[in-house]
């Protein structure tokens, strides 16, 4: 029995038949709309959507076949049942060939009609379910993270590798790249998956509360501690604990954290005994920890304890086709949340999204799509629905007035250099500019560090082992 959620549009110019069909279908439990010509039917489906269209083959203002063709071009194509006159079986077959799900001949047998309607709607539900499941596989859904680009596939492989291993994991990446999602995926792939997952943002804890947040406290341990409270390590016992923004942890807490990670025991504030805990620590940061160490803000010993399993989450601008995939994914999510039916992005909007460099990464993209869905009143997100900062953004090359001058300098000999020559010279130039710092060089070139390593090795500018030595943040998983 239908629950009224399924919407059927009856397109019929014969008023008597139209009303009869609407009544029968309505009484059966469907939500029914009507139209008496092809044009208004199309407008209705575009604006309000429909799960099934039942249309007469002959209609004023365009025939049912043309309507069928137009429906096929819609993003969410409704099911389609064609009504033909008795004795026009050839036309009915033609309609099925053109994509109609079934046909009915006049005079209509209402019981037969209801069986056909139920079957077509059921088929449509199943088709959508299959498409959804296929998209989960094909769209590279890895524990809620979407990505089919090479850097993301590599990241998923690395997560599968580090998850079963013992020991802490360090997750590096710019803000909004999905570090917390990566931590959840590590937990889900690990032997501790059935245990709890706890997360804390170290930047959000007042310094005097750190110890009790991490290790808990006994009742009366300090003013305001009226009851005994478990700390994060006990909450995460048997599972994983994400320490987000680890770079913000005060030095004194870093020493205590290191101790717990080494001996697996905590002592709640005010307790006179230690307790054993079994927690997988996952630390994340967008900070350059090597620079924090150099500035005296981060303990080197803690860093070395954390960095043996390091994962780097690539920035969105290095993920190529994932931008479209994520935009479409967020569009679907936002439409569902706001109960809207926006079909997609106009070419001009896609261009703007691609020209932008996404400093806020995936989180920024989500916010942009959410805002666009709110501002867009029609079916398609266009340029004007995107924020001004995106529309006014100049792609990097045009941005840099020195680029033509630099190119001229690189190519200033009597013979024009090859592209490889230019690449080699440009690499040296960028390395000079950043004082040999490979992390910054990679960021400036807009490529991943491993790609930079490959280039440098190929150009004979360094060997793999040399490259590893001055890069404390490079992971074993990466090399
Ligand atoms: N690959 C992805 N697929 C789908 N959603 C994603 C993906 N990566 C990130 N997100 C979403 O983007 C948002 C930001 O992700 P997350 O909080 O994990 O980033 P973060 O790197 O931890 O951010 P911060 O540095 O600010 O702590 C979340 O809403 C998350 O669900």
Explain what the structure shows.
There is one protein chain. With 479 residues, the chain is of the alpha/beta class. The chain has four domains: 7-137, Rossmann fold; 142-312, P-loop containing nucleotide triphosphate hydrolases (Rossmann fold), CATH 3.40.50; 316-393, Helicase, Ruva Protein, domain 3, CATH 1.10.8; 397-469, Arc Repressor Mutant, subunit A (Orthogonal Bundle). 48% of the residues lie in helices and 13% in strands. The chain is built from 22 helices and 16 strands. It has helices at residues 15-28, 38-48, 64-72, 89-97, 110-138, 150-162, 179-189, 210-215, 232-235, 251-263, 289-294, 300-306, 322-338, 347-355, 361-375, 388-391, 396-399, 402-410, 419-433, 438-445, 449-458, 464-469, and strands at residues 7-11, 31-35, 52-56, 79-84, 102-105, 141-142, 145-146, 169-172, 197-201, 240-244, 265-266, 275-276, 280-285, 310-312, 344-345, 380-381. The strands form five sheets. A five-stranded parallel β-sheet has the order 2-1-3-4-5, sandwiched between helices. Helix 4 (89-97) links the parallel strand 4 and strand 5 (102-105). Helix 13 (322-338) crosses helix 15 and helix 20 (438-445) packs across helix 21. The longest helix has 29 residues, at 110-138. Adenosine-5'-triphosphate binds next to strand 7, helix 7 and helix 15. Adenosine-5'-triphosphate (ATP) binds at residues 145-147, 173, 175-181, 244, 286, 326, 362-363, 366. Keywords: ATP-binding, DNA-binding, Nucleotide-binding, Phosphoprotein, Transcription, Transcription regulation. It holds the Pfam family Response_reg. Residues 7-121 form the Response regulatory domain. This is Sigma-54 dependent transcriptional regulator. The modification 4-aspartylphosphate is found at residue 56.
């Amino acid at each position: 029995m239908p629950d009224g959620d399924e919407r059927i549009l009856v397109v019929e110019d014969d008023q008597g038949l139209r009303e009869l069909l609407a009544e029968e279908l309505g009484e059966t439990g469907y939500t029914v709309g009507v139209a008496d010509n092809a044009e208004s039917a199309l407008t209705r489906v575009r604006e309000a959507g429909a799960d099934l269209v039942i249309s007469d083959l002959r209609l004023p203002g365009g025939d049912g076949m043309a309507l069928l063709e137009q429906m096929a071009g819609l993003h969410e194509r409704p099911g389609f049942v064609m009504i033909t006159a008795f004795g026009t079986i050839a036309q009915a077959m033609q309609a099925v060939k053109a994509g109609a799900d079934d046909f009915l001949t006049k005079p209509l047998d209402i019981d037969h009609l209801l069986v056909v309607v139920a079957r077509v709607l059921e088929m449509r539900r199943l088709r959508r379910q299959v498409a959804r499941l296929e998209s989960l596989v094909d769209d590279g859904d890895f524990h809620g993270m979407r990505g089919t680009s090479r850097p993301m596939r590599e990241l998923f492989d690395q997560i599968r590798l580090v998850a079963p291993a013992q020991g802490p994991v360090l997750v590096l990446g710019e803000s909004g790249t999905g570090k917390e999602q990566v931590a959840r995926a590590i937990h889900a792939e690990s032997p501790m998956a059935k245990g709890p997952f706890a997360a804390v943002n170290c930047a959000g804890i007042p310094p005097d509360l750190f110890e009790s947040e991490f290790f808990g406290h006994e009742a009366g341990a300090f003013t305001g501690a009226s009851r005994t409270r478990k700390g994060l390590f006990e909450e995460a016992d048997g599972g994983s604990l994400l320490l987000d923004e680890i770079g913000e942890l005060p030095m004194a807490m870093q020493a205590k954290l290191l101790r717990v990670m080494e001996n697996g025991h905590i002592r709640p504030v005010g307790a006179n005994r230690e307790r054993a805990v079994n927690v997988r620590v996952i630390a994340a940061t967008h900070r350059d920890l090597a620079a924090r160490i150099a500035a005296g803000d981060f303990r080197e010993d803690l860093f070395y304890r954390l960095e043996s399993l390091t994962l780097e989450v690539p920035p969105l601008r290095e993920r190529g086709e994932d931008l479209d995939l994520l935009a479409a994914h967020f569009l679907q999510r936002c439409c569902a949340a706001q109960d809207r039916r926006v079909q997609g992005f106009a070419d001009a909007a896609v261009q703007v999204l691609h020209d932008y460099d996404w400093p806020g990464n995936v989180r920024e993209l989500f916010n942009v799509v959410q805002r666009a869905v709110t501002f867009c009143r029609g079916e398609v997100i266009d340029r004007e629905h995107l924020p001004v900062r995106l529309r006014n953004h100049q792609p990097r090359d045009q941005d840099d007035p020195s680029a033509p001058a630099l190119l001229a300098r690189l190519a200033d000999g009597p013979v024009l250099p090859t592209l490889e020559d230019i690449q080699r010279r440009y690499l040296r130039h960028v390395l000079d500019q950043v004082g040999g710092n490979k992390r910054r060089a990679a960021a400036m070139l807009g490529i991943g560090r491993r790609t930079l390593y490959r280039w440098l090795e190929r150009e004979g500018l360094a060997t793999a082992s040399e490259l590893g030595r001055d890069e404390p943040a490079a992971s074993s998983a990466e090399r």
